[in-house]
Amino acid sequence: MSQTLTAQDAVRSDANIITVQQHILNEQRRLSPDASGSFSWLLSGITLATKMISARVRRAGLLDVTGQVGNVNVQGEQQQKLDVWADQALIHCLGVRENVAIIASEESEHAITFDGRTGRGKYAVLFDPLDGSSNIDVNVSVGTIFSIVELPADRKYQTDPTTAVLQAGARQLAAGYVIYGSSTMLVYTTGHGVHGFTLDPAVGAYVLSHEDMRIPNAGNIYSCNTANWNEFPAGYREYMKTLREGVDGRAYTLRYIGSLVADFHRTLVNGGVFLYPATTSYPQGKLRLLYEANPISFIAEQAGGIATDGKQRILDIVPSDIHERTPLVVGSPAEMMRFQATVEQT
Ligand code: AHG
Ligand code: MN
Ligand code: MN
Predict the structure, then answer these.
(1) Whether pTM exceeds 0.90
(2) Burial of 12 (0-12, 13-18, 19+ CB in 10 A)
(3) CB under 6 Å to ligand 1: residues?
């Protein structure tokens, strides 16, 4: 005697959680039935590392992980202990995924390849292991940002791994971020919508909580470090003055956390616009194209938003250096179209 459960029966039970691994496999089966599952194996390296980072972030005050290491990274910025720890966790977890041939990290000057793996790996992973480092010691949300690209089949990257990862953001296979906030949440896209997973500490798994996330068409929040006001190009000041005065009867308010992941996640959920313009201190912009602006912009566009560098679509920019910086303006269609009409035409 046996009982056959139909798929509908299974879905009815509320214990029926969908983990991010299951979601990726479902997506792969839906989109390419003969998928080997190697992509979900790669993603499990990222989810494992971010669970380790989340556990560390949540105990930061109890462990010796706050504060500075005492040296300056390739960005010319003081490295925080958690920057280094998160970087090592990601390199370790991705290093044991044989389909990852190259890693590019904010914390490493050069692209990283794995000894003896030349020729087999088909993916490169670019990441900002700990975004918002300046907020760690004051217990404000921080994050991890990642971007996944496919490597050229000719495997030429063996001699020049850096060139292999210098791909325009439009070529990303997948991108995502993890925000270590009031909950730990993974948001990712493979080009088929944006999906959010909340880490359930009781289960130790990222569980689907926000399927098919869409950015609101308009919001009432603008997010920018206006301490740099006098350094912004004039058009940006005009644009933000307009928002401050209110548009179509809608008054805007300012929210700025200082962690890109947190400021963007709020923009994705509530709508509005995030701006990090070029300044005199950062004439090319402060945010890094490959592992901050590109993944965030891929997600924004997949959720119905727009992302530019103030002149062109972020995802069209062809990078010339792993750590190159860019201005970033990203948000809801209403705010972004107003921005483009105000600033991009000036
Ligand atoms: P990171 O901690 O990885 O260096 O990134 C910090 C970035 C980004 O998270 C944030 O949007 C921006 O720096 C904040 O810059 P300001 O402190 O200049 O506003
Ligand atoms: Mn960052
Ligand atoms: Mn960082």
Answers:
(1) yes
(2) exposed
(3) 77, 106, 128, 131-134, 225, 258-260, 263, 276, 286
